[in-house]
Design goal:
- With 116 residues, the chain is mainly beta.
- It is 0% helix and 47% strand.
- A 6-stranded mixed β-sheet has the order 2-10-9-4-5-6, with no helix packed on it. Strands 1-3-8-7 form a 4-stranded antiparallel β-sheet, with no helix packed on it.
- The chain is globular.
- The termini are far apart.
């Protein structure tokens, strides 16, 4: 079973930036579409962005133009560059397969807090 480890979260000010990383234990992740999700307290887990094996990307409307998803197959890692952060971006961020029918076990996530 693929294990996913998210990192890079922290405290940022509005308008600031953070870069999240998702390191996978197996290279098979390079052959599937991967995604970043986020879950704020009391809310459902939402898709933030996804990337295909061919690096085609898709973004949720609420992050389009601010966040960039990318992947480094040599490192079995998916990234999320977050710019122009807003208070509403505060959440725990997770990575996983983009295909909900074939999810790996969820990692622990990484907390992003946007506060002044």
């Amino acid at each position: 079973q693929v294990q996913l480890v998210e990192s890079g979260g922290g405290l940022a000010q509005p308008g600031g930036s953070l870069r999240l990383s998702c390191a996978a234990s197996e290279s098979k992740v390079n052959d599937v579409s991967m995604a970043w999700y986020r879950q704020a307290p009391g809310k459902q887990r939402d898709l933030v962005a996804r990337i295909t094996p061919g690096n085609i990307t898709h973004y949720a409307d609420f992050v389009r133009g601010r966040f960039t998803i990318s992947r480094d197959n040599a490192k079995n890692t998916v990234y999320l560059q977050m710019n122009s952060l807003e208070f509403e971006d505060t959440a725990v961020y997770y990575c996983n397969r983009a295909n909900l029918a074939g999810l790996y076990s969820w990692g622990q996530g990484t907390q992003v807090t946007v506060s002044s």
